[in-house]
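Extended Data, panel c. Modelled sequence:
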Amino acid sequence: MNGASSPDRLLQKLHAIYSMRLHAPRSSLADRSDYRILLARLDDPHLRIPPAIHVAGTNGKGSTIAFLKAMYEAEGYKVHVYTSPHLVRFNERIVIRGQQIDDQTLEMVLDHVMGETRDLQLTFFEIVTAMAFLAFANIPADLCLIETGMGGRIDCTNVIQNPLATVITRISYDHREFLGDTLHEIAKEKAGIMKPGAPCIIGYQGEDHDAKASHDSVMPLFDSVAGQNDTPLHRAGIEWGVSRPESDPSHFIFRYGSLQKTYPVPSLVGVHQIGNAGAALACTHVIDSIPIHDESRQAGLTRVTWPGRMQRIENSPINKGLPPGWQVWLDGGHNDSAGQALAGQATQWHRTDALPLHMVLAMKQDKDADLFLERLLPQVSSLTIIPIPGFEKVSHDPATLAGRVMTRQPDLKIQIAPDLATALTLVPSHDPAARLLITGSLFLAGHVLALIKNQDAL
């Protein structure tokens, strides 16, 4: 392609593949035959990418990848990263050697992939994954970090044949229409990324880094699948673990076999993030072929960023409408485990300063709002429900959801609003100091971040 990419032209091409979200040929998901034909036409880029770590799970995938990226980059390695969804710009999905893919390269790989899609039935995520593989195959790096979409076994990232390692984070209820209704069914799908001989790091499966809960939940299933695949397991609470010393809340203890190290609490906020950091630390110890010094591990923990996940928002249009003593927090969590993690953080906050916690919530219809709110509602002083900006037709109806919440929490102040701007005027702001949590959807998180950056989402 000659010349720089035109933003308008690129946006038109991206909108064309966005429309493919609604045309997933479910009958072909089991073998993804058309997708494999596409990869073959592209000269199998998934077989030519740099060494990869493949990460699956329901909660914590992105955070674990963010920790790994920060640690390996602190060591000086060049790292490609593929994650989803994006929050503001499509380019967030494909990171090349530490930087989001630029518009010109993005348009080049998009044109190349779309040029080979003739007479094929393909989904949006298949197209985007092929684009990522093509970009990674064409540009040298030391390491690739690949996040699954929603599953594992039939996920279109699961064409990677010889990963350095795989990681499976906490399993929870999400995408039940594809993955199953029980945790065991969902875990079996996620476990499909295990490969013979490639070590698999299993994250905590219970709350508060509870080793017993981790082992009693879906761990036996992971043990079984690993045995069938000759996969070495490194399990939270067994081969590795984390703990918090009461005497020093600024550090945590990481254990790997007989090794025990003390690390600074990560810069990602949330009590659950120590477990995600532990999974990343375990992965760096398991992989011998890309060595890393402990100083780089420590640096990565303190430098890591992951937008839209327990992110504090400051000096934004949202803050300006609230009293000076208010804090604004943003989190894209939307399932039961995310609700539990947020409730855990709220408990931690209340122990620290007992500030009231107010919440603005928007969720998609296909997310279980009751499970998400079960642990969280008792922690909040008020709840304002809105539709997701730009996704109103697929959002939970605010009035209906408010009625359900009211029956469970009749003493809670509950309001509905047509949009975020209105919701911010309804939040009870008589408290001189309080916290406002905006949560329930990554699409809502993306809208807030785009608003803060004063740009349209792409």
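The longest helix spans residues 336-352. This feature is highlighted in the accompanying rendering.
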